[in-house]
Recover the amino acids of this structure.
């Protein structure tokens, strides 16, 4: 079923409880009370991406959400990886050199042998250690104060991530959100849908007692694939974000708002006009990706009124956000919470 198209006045009414806390001097305001800090693949500027260590560090840095990208292994286990190929972010080539069974599951692509998540079992992946892809935007053991390159980092499952976040809530009361992305393989619609359905099944696992059912506003779902976004919207009450280019006209933004709660756009697309156009349609705007390589964009994007930033450096994202959007006084937190709940309720799919 489609999302209700929400007008700006409706959202404004939902946000009245939080308007008093919007910062003075910013050029635009987000739809949400305070923009979200989304730890992109964890604190991936400091530790290898999509590892539990990177997720935990992001939480220590006070990120609001952690983001696992999801693929299914050959035997149906959801694992957190950004690339279908494991070559860039694990030591798979090194391990396969002395493991004939693993080597045989590789695919020769030109001069390179690629090892794809969907052709390996979870047992295969458990043999590997996650590594950093390097570059200015990602961790480097030579410069990171958090590891020196001698450590071994497991590739986590989606359940590892959910267990961690749920246990954190159960033991401390702190709510950290999860923002899983359905990754896709071109030309394999059945596989892509299987990832989406497995993700929804995991979030609804009874062992979590409904913690991920939306009542705590601690879940966003996302995909670059429009059909997957629409599938998630039709089969879940959780807010779905469509990773796409900026809608070029109001009608295009309104069309997206029929099935998505928001859009995820690149920092280069996140112009003031784009953000304003999306907000006019009632769409949240989350921008990707800011890192140590372009850290000044945190301030720029918050000033334009984005509703969240995917950042590889969540400590910098939090510091920038908190400077522009100070944490409300404790006596005002209840009202602030009403504003957030009102916004997400307004965007939630009609039953």
């Amino acid at each position: 079923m489609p999302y209700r198209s929400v007008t700006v006045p409706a959202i404004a009414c939902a946000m009245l409880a939080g308007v008093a806390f919007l910062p003075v001097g910013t050029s635009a305001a987000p739809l949400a009370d305070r923009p979200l800090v989304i730890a992109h693949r964890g604190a991936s500027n400091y530790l290898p991406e999509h590892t539990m260590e990177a997720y935990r560090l992001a939480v220590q840095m006070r990120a609001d959400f952690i983001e696992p990208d999801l693929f299914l292994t050959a035997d149906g286990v959801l694992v957190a990886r950004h690339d279908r190929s494991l070559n860039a972010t694990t030591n798979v080539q090194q391990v396969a050199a002395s493991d004939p069974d693993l080597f045989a599951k590789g695919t020769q692509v030109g001069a390179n042998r690629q090892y794809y998540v969907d052709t390996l079992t979870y047992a295969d992946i458990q043999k590997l250690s996650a590594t950093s892809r390097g570059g200015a935007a990602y961790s480097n053991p030579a410069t990171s104060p958090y590891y020196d390159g001698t450590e071994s980092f497991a590739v986590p499952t989606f359940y590892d991530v959910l267990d961690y976040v749920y246990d954190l809530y159960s033991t401390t009361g702190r709510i950290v959100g999860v923002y899983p992305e359905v990754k896709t393989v071109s030309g394999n619609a059945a596989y892509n849908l299987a990832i989406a359905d497995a993700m929804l099944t995991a979030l609804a696992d009874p062992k979590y007692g409904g913690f991920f059912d939306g009542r705590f506003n601690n879940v966003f779902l996302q995909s670059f694939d429009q059909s997957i976004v629409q599938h998630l919207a039709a089969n879940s009450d959780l807010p779905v974000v469509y990773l796409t280019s900026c809608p070029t006209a109001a009608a295009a933004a309104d069309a997206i708002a029929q099935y998505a709660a928001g859009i995820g756009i690149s920092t280069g697309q996140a112009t003031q006009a784009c953000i304003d156009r999306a907000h006019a349609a009632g769409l949240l705007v989350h921008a990707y990706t800011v890192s140590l390589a372009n850290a000044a964009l945190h301030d720029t994007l918050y000033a334009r009124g984005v509703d969240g930033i995917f950042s590889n450096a969540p400590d910098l994202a939090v510091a920038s956000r908190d400077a522009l959007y100070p944490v409300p006084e404790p006596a005002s937190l209840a009202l602030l919470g009403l504003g957030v709940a009102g916004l997400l309720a307004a965007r939630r799919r009609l039953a």
